[in-house]
Amino acid sequence: MYHTSNIDTPSTDLHNLIFTRNRRTDVVFSNIFTIARDPPPIDQELMEIADATAEASSGATPIVATVKTPLEKLTEAVDKNPLDFNSWVSLLALVQSETSRETVEATYDRFLTEFPLCFGYWNKYAQYEYGLRNKTTEDGVGTVATLDEAKRKAREVYERGVVAVRHSVDMWMKYCEFLIHTLHTPVEETRPLLERAMDACGADPLAGPLWELYIQLETVNNDMPRLNQVFKRIMYQPLRNLEEFWEKYNQFVLAQQLSALATTEEQKALVDSGEELMDEGLLRVKIVNAVEAVKNKTMEDIYRRQAFEAGIDRSYFHVTPVAEAAMKNWHSYLDFEEAAGNYERCQTLYERCLISCANYEEIWLRYVEWIDTVHGFEAADAVFQRAVTIFLKYRASIYLEYAAFLEAHNKLQKAQDTYMKVLSDVAPKLAEAFLHYCNFERRRGDVETAKTWYERGMEAVEHDAGVYAYVATSYAMFLDKTIGDAALARAVFERAVLKH
Questions:
Q1: Surface-to-core class of residue 412, CB atoms within 10 Å of its CB (0-12 exposed, 13-18 middle, 19+ buried)
Q2: Which H/E stretch holds residue 463?
């Protein structure tokens, strides 16, 4: 990715042992590091009960063991490890049935901050809010929420959901169905929402249900010219069930007046040059043929991508790893679209890919590299920001890549801030982070700051002999090669030997 040169890093087997990074197995390593960082706690209940039993048997005053409730246990679990998905799911089920509205909302908010792509839980959250219109208060007087408040709160949650998972057909379907089928929202309000949905993911091969919802809306509204335009737009979309829509369009055409199928201007455009009038039947044929030509071209695009689409094993987010074959398919599909040169289609595919592969650093870095080339720094920076603030915010390696990217674009202050974020919060004892930052300062010409942070790095890892030796070796090389102080470099080596 955005690698930097002339880094004073010792080329040793120890480096390979500690810092080998295989992006294809980021998730596996992430789980290992999580376990290493937060080992399973000793069951405090059993320990306390055992202590109480021992006290009682010795004749001392018995101690009553404190037994944690399931709610306390689950809350403690997610506090210790915010990425413990199973504990979150159990906690959400528990709080929704037992506790106050404020607790439920706070729990959903925390969970969806960690897992914003879980469209099903955005839907559950919204449905919970809407359901409060029927839930009585503790004193039995009235309901927790009025109907208007329940509607408003549910819509607010859905709005947050479509911002968080903008390219998810499922998320938009839940929101649109809620407005249309549950709230029976007027068409003037629903149509703009459907347009937003189409703008976000109308070209997704799985967007057929969304377009079907649009057809139903205009059919019920009895606006045939609008419905005709919807059908025409559908023929440009690479939908898996495009042929089904084509059949529906043909049935629609047979039942409509010519004025619903084409405006006067469109009809004139279809009339051959020199003709003033054309038989209505022939004009209908020309209208249908023009739409069919669009459909046929779209089907060619679908056939070219059919094998790639078949290789996508899931179009939604889940914490379980993506299959190796599916990851290979995503990369091949992205290669194909990049080579094809249709930037809009390529960006759409990247966003689709990130729904299921949001935990994979390799996809984020590939997306950044492509979008940086096509759209420049601002667009690439926005993608990196999403990675480091939302999806990979606990992973130090993505911050180091981001810092290198910022430095490559001469955003030095922002790069420094990113390094400080890692060293103060994300991974304050990660040797690789110290070395990257020290070399960043060396490249900027601030050798004194580099020396200071080398010293801090040695102090941070002093209890790990192997890593301490690794940092000390890098520091000594820096002192010898960059500063030219062989005596000071020798002193660092001697200190490392004496330390361990």
A1: middle
A2: none
Distance CA 317, CA 171 (A): 12
Distance from C-alpha of 83 to C-alpha of 180, rounded to nearest angstrom: 35
Q: What is the dihedral of CA 436, 442, 444, 446, to 10 degrees?
A: 120
Cα–Cα dist 404/398, whole Å = 10
End-to-end CA distance of the chain: 36
The dihedrals phi and psi of 44, each to the nearest 5 degrees, come to: -65, -30
List pLDDT tens digits, range 307-353: 999 999 999 999 999 999 999 999 999 999 999 999 999 999 999 99
8 A C-beta contact, residue 25 and residue 358: no
* pLDDT for residue 144: 87
Query: Where do runs of H (alpha helix) occur along 235-342?
Result: 242-254, 258-261, 264-270, 280-310, 324-340
- DSSP letter for each residue of 61-125: PP-PPPPPPHHHHHHHHHHH-TT-HHHHHHHHHHHHHHS-HHHHHHHHHHHHHH-TT-HHHHHHH
**How many H-runs (helices) and E-runs (strands) does the chain carry?**
26, 0
The Cα 494–Cα 481 span in angstroms is 18
What whole-number distance in Å separates Cα of residue 495 and Cα of residue 500? 9
116 CB neighbour count, 10 Å cutoff:
20
How big is the chain, counted in residues? Answer: 500
Each residue's pLDDT tens digit, 405-434: 999 999 999 999 999 999 999 999 999 999
Residue 496 tokens, joined: 């490392």
Residue 220's nearest CA partner among 249, 250, 187 is 187
Q: ∠ at Cα 394 (390, 398), nearest 5°?
A: 80
* SS3 state at 207: coil
Give the pair of three-digit tokens for residue 217. Answer: 């809306």
Q: Which position has the token pair 């504990």?
A: 87
pTM of the model: 0.84
Name residues whose C-beta falls within 8 Å of residue 62's C-beta, 6 or more positions apart in sequence.
Answer: 52, 55, 56
Residue 360 structure tokens: 């994979």
Q: Evaluate the CA torsion angle 24, 28, 32, 35 in order and state its sign.
A: positive
Q: What does the DSSP 8-state code read for residue 319?
A: S
Please spell the DSSP secondary structure of 148-199, one letter per residue.
HHHHHHHHHHHHHHHHHTTT-HHHHHHHHHIIIIIS---HHHHHHHHHHHHH
